[in-house]
From TrEMBL:
UniProt xrefs under Gene3D superfamilies: Carboxypeptidase-like, regulatory domain, Zn peptidases
InterPro entries the UniProt entry points to: CarboxyPept-like_regulatory, Peptidase_M14, Peptidase_M14_domain
Keywords: Glycoprotein
Family: Belongs to the peptidase M14 family.
Keyword Chloroplast: no
Protein name: AEBP1 protein
Location of the Peptidase M14 domain: 1-262
Cellular component aspect of the GO annotation: extracellular space
Length: 381
């Protein structure tokens, strides 16, 4: 925060462009209670677990709704996407109940995500040195037809590594941070606690490394438009004050590069033929089975890797619009606007409903209509 403000005031063109063209939100601590406990113990007396939980005993990172398992269950029943969405999956009602086991911090973050149309996010953690991306949840292996029924408390020892539809984009984002870090890709030294789990890249899919359900990353991806990753800054969760300057130098370029990635892909506005914005319109990218929605002003942002994409915009009561959008390697999202014309399907459904959803009888010219047919005609008109 100090760096961005000072460099902006000093006229740094890179920082000025970033601050001017980007809405940046910074949260110093998601778990202030845990931080106070860890700060009091310090580096020598603390460990990775100290400060991990809130005062009420919640692990905030795993306290979000497990929407991934709900999506996969719907896929197995072939309900996606016509009956169950592949994006903006609603929060289960039982999770929103007042007596639900949900931390107040988690509720606040979910409300914050719903209020702001975030596009890209990173949560900074410690205890390892790598970048982790979704899915964090491991998908249970499907049972074989000959397998015996599973008990209710069954836990699959060999879950599948399920990739998100945006797997290539997540890898790009993760590499953008790790490759700009001064030491994160030096995996020849091994990991902080075990061998290198990143295949010498400094990045890893969460389910491959540390499977867990209900993570903030998975929730953000499946409930909002935001692509969220976890950045583990170093092995020591509580470095000494004398070490902080070097830690800043290690991560400074990575932080800037990562934030700049929000301007990669496509962006635009969806309006009707009168120029009025259409909120909650669905943006569909061909070949990527994960859609996003427009914000209240009809605007949208979709991070994509370089390439050519067939993109469509759809909204209730409108005819869809399709166009080809090109994403270049240089930073700067491609403008792809859509103008939707109103559809007559809504009126057709209303007429069919008045007719009891029965086929409307064809009136033959020259044949006198019955009183019932004249009544139906007046109702349709």
């Amino acid at each position: 925060m100090q760096f961005l403000c000072k460099e902006y005031q000093d006229g740094n063109p890179r920082v000025r462009g970033l601050v001017t063209d980007t809405r940046i939100h910074l949260v110093p601590s998601l778990n202030p209670d845990g931080y106070e406990l860890a700060r009091e113990a310090g580096s020598e007396l603390g460990n990775w677990a100290l400060g991990h939980w809130t005062e009420e005993g919640f692990d905030l990172f795993e306290n979000f709704p497990d929407l991934a398992s709900a999506l996969w269950a719907a896929e197995e029943r072939r309900l996606v996407p016509h009956q169950f969405p592949n994006h903006h999956i609603p929060i289960p009602e039982h999770y929103l109940a007042e007596d639900a086991a949900v931390a107040v911090e988690t509720r606040a973050v979910m409300a914050w995500m719903d209020k702001n149309p975030f596009v890209l996010g990173a949560n900074l953690q410690g205890g390892e040195k790598l970048v982790s991306f979704p899915f964090d949840t491991a998908r249970p292996s499907p049972p074989t037809p000959a397998a015996a029924p599973r008990p209710l408390d069954y836990e699959d020892e060999h879950p599948e590594l399920q990739e998100t539809p945006d797997h290539a984009v997540f890898r790009w984002l993760a590499i953008s941070y790790a490759s700009a870090h001064l030491t994160m890709t030096e995996t020849f030294r091994g990991g902080c606690h075990t061998q290198d789990v990143t295949d010498a890249m400094g990045i890893v899919q969460g389910a491959k490394w540390h499977p867990r359900a209900g993570s903030m990353n998975d929730f953000s991806y499946l409930h909002t438009n935001c692509l969220e990753l976890s950045v583990y800054l170093g092995c020591d969760k509580f470095p000494h004050e004398s070490e902080l300057q070097q830690e800043w130098e290690n991560n400074k370029e990575s932080l800037l590069t990562f934030m700049e990635q929000v301007h990669r892909g496509i962006k635009g506005v969806v309006t009707d033929q009168q120029g009025e914005p259409i909120a909650n319109a669905t943006i569909v990218v061909g070949g990527i089975n994960h859609n996003i929605k427009t914000a209240s002003g009809g605007d949208y942002w979709r991070i994509l890797n370089p390439g050519e994409y067939r993109v469509s915009a759809r909204a209730e009561g409108y005819n869809p619009s399709v166009k080809t959008c090109h994403v270049l390697y240089d930073i700067g999202a491609t403008q792809c606007n859509f103008v939707l014309s109103r559809s007559n399907w809504k009126r057709i459904r209303e007429i069919m409903a008045m007719n009891g959803n029965r086929p409307i009888r064809l009136v033959v010219p020259g044949r006198p209509m019955t009183p019932r047919e004249r009544l139906r005609l007046r109702m349709r008109l």
